[in-house]
Amino acid sequence: MILALGLFLCVLLGTHGFNTQHSIEPQADFDLEKFTGEWYRLGVADESNTFAMLKHHLKVSKGLLVADASGNVNLTMWTMRPNGCSISVNSYEKTDVPGAFTYFSKRHKIIKDITMVETNYTDYSLVLKYKSMDKEYTQIALYARTPTPTLEVIQKFISFALTLGFSEGAIMVPADIDHCPNLESRSTAEFREEKSAQTTNQSIFGTVSNV
Ligand SMILES: *[C@@H]1O[C@H](CO)[C@@H](O)[C@H](O)[C@H]1NC(C)=O
Ligand SMILES: *[C@@H]1O[C@H](CO)[C@@H](O)[C@H](O)[C@H]1NC(C)=O
Ligand SMILES: *[C@@H]1O[C@H](CO)[C@@H](O)[C@H](O)[C@H]1NC(C)=O
């Protein structure tokens, strides 16, 4: 009985807990125009079981952030699939706070917030998804303007993730670079078809890959 209780406590203590002391706000004077353009996602911190299963497949992938005149943005991300490059587009709606957006997560069927926590526009950005800190929903991504990270930027990302209470195992900084989009002359319509033809597993991974 005592042994059983001991094991149970170990399991409980082994579970992870987010640090919810911090109130996380977007970077002051966030400048959307300077933030738009190409970004490479160099790291992801995610405590969910789905991510734990798929994280070793994660690669550095390319994204393009486009804003419209009203301040809403679309983030297009490219991912290599067994049958070629596929794209996914997430539409983030602006809020009253510059640097804070919302979007509807197709995977979790809820509205999530996006916070542009820190950026210097020319090199890196730290983006937090779902700041209420939930193991299944919360994710941090590190983006940079080039696919090759500097140690300084990686360290910034890792220490931010640890400060929020992510466990080391939930923080991934992939070494491989995804070769999408490549220079094959294939149309966007074809990419979209491939996307809708993905298996469940691939589309789960697609969602994990998108921030
Ligand atoms: C985002 O994409 C949607 C669907 O293609 C489009 O209607 C919308 O205008 C785009 N928004 C921006 C900010 O580019
Ligand atoms: C942006 O951040 C990187 C990494 O911290 C740094 O090397 C670079 O000098 C910064 N650029 C500007 C314009 O502050
Ligand atoms: C889904 O992905 C996981 C992890 O890569 C793998 O173990 C599993 O076999 C895959 N399932 C299917 C149906 O492809």
Describe the structure.
- With 211 residues, the protein is α+β, with helices and mostly antiparallel strands.
- The chain has a single domain (22-209), classed as Calycin beta-barrel core domain (Lipocalin, Beta Barrel), CATH 2.40.128.
- Helices cover 26% and strands 32% of the residues.
- It has helices at 2-14, 32-35, 49-54, 151-163, 188-196, 200-209, and strands spanning 37-46, 61-67, 73-81, 84-94, 100-105, 110-119, 124-129, 139-144, 171-172.
- It has an 8-stranded antiparallel beta barrel.
- Strand 5 (100-105) and strand 6 form a beta hairpin.
- The longest helix is centred in the first third of the chain and has 13 residues, at 2-14.
- It is globular.
- One 2-acetamido-2-deoxy-beta-D-glucopyranose is lined by residues 66-68, 72-74, 89, 91.
Q: Oligomerization state of this entry?
A: single chain
Unreliable residue stretches: 9-14, 184-211
CATH superfamily: Calycin beta-barrel core domain
Q: In the CATH hierarchy, what is the architecture at level 2?
A: Beta Barrel
Give the overall silhouette. globular
Number of domains: 1
- How would you classify the helix and strand content by structural class? alpha+beta
Give me the count of strands.
9
The run of helices and strands is HHEHEEEEEEEHEHH
Rg is 18 Å
Distance between the termini: 45 Å
Largest sheet: 8 strands, antiparallel, barrel
Mean pLDDT: 84
Helical element count? 6
Strand content: 25-35%
